[in-house]
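Sorry to interrupt, but I need a hand with the structure work. Go ahead and set the record down below:
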Amino acid sequence: MTGYAMFDDMSQFHAWLAERELANEYRVSVTSLDSLDGWRTDPETGNIHHHSGRFFSVIGVNVDADSRTPAAWSQPIILQPEIGILGILAKRVDGTTYCLMQAKMEPGNINLLQLSPTVQATRSNFTRVHGGSAVPYLEYFRTPRRGRPVFDSLQSEQGSWFLGKRNRNMIVEVEEEVPVGENFCWLSTGQLAELMRIPNLVNMDARTVLSGVSFLTGDRHQRDGEARHPLGHILSWFTEVKSQQQLKRSIVPLRELPDWKRSRGTIHRLDGRHFSVIGVDVRASDREVRSWSQPMFRPSARGVIAFLGRHFDGTFHVLVHARTEAGTADVVEMGPTVACIPDNYAGAVDAERPRYLDVVLGASPSQLLVDILHSEEGGRFYHAENRYLVIDVGEDFPAEPPYGYCWLTVDQLAGFIRYGNHVNVGARCLLSCMTDLISQEATP
């Protein structure tokens, strides 16, 4: 494998990553929305657009969702109708599967440099609207491509902050020799599973693609008979929830949003909760464009994304929530049991708190199967960090869930990733953190 970098131990990888950080110049500074180079605010609507008309816009939306509390709200949201590519090149060497990963800087990352997919690019980027350099390895992911696609699916992004946004998640297997760029390295799937346990190292875009790695490795061992519910039951449950719940949205001018205010160069809620919209100036010596400015969404506090789980007849299941967000494309998607920013509910009465949030926050260390901090999409969200949890609540936990929830095996949920708009990004990222659980359940 040309330029193949096999790390005999992970200390070599960490030394390589530190060297890549020192080799490049990165600088991010928070600035006013009023002074963003290349962006304009519409004087009538207050909406924020790029001067090219491409990339993305920040607009306002009114939402009415009868499954949420409160059932109606208004917020800023990102409109980015382009479909980008999140793609990983894979190669088998002596029976081991390796993935070509990139050390990539994103302005919103807490530690700036994280592991990303081989290709992580919006359509505006890979069509070079910015006038910058070409995206490396793009030819492996666009027709006529060089390689065999083993996972290829349109997947949703964060519905809380994107309006119907989708990206193409791909894993392409190659047999040919692949030159390795200076910011790229080959890592085995086992090494990636180990790195997934390190906070803020494997970025969100890599995690969502890696949730489909079982389609590459062939680890599809679970049988319907080992699950509490057969596939037909799950499909009927999901279809029923989708058909009964309502999601109504209307795009409105950003300046007319109730409870939101633009002042001091930011857009924020009057109560300081949820998130704000800020501006950043960025410099990165190894990006297609060396410097740029952009709006970003900054959450008010750290979030929690969690699965409650328990065994049924010896097989581990997770409690999946059919969840609606402001930007969900098709009413609901299969999501984690809990996904929220707990600080937003400080002082709220029980009826206003997300179901099962107190179970998650009250879990003991012995119940935690997964407990790791990870950053969210650093290209649009500034210092957005969630605590990812999988909690074994034990077999005394109620077997019959309330409306909108269903028990699935880990393998059943992973199987739905093959199809777009079924499993939301929070659940996909949690699945990528659950490699050990998948391996345990797959053992005959």
Remarks:
- The radius of gyration is 21 Å.
- The first strand starts at residue 26 and ends at 31.
- DSSP finds ten helices and 24 strands in the chain.
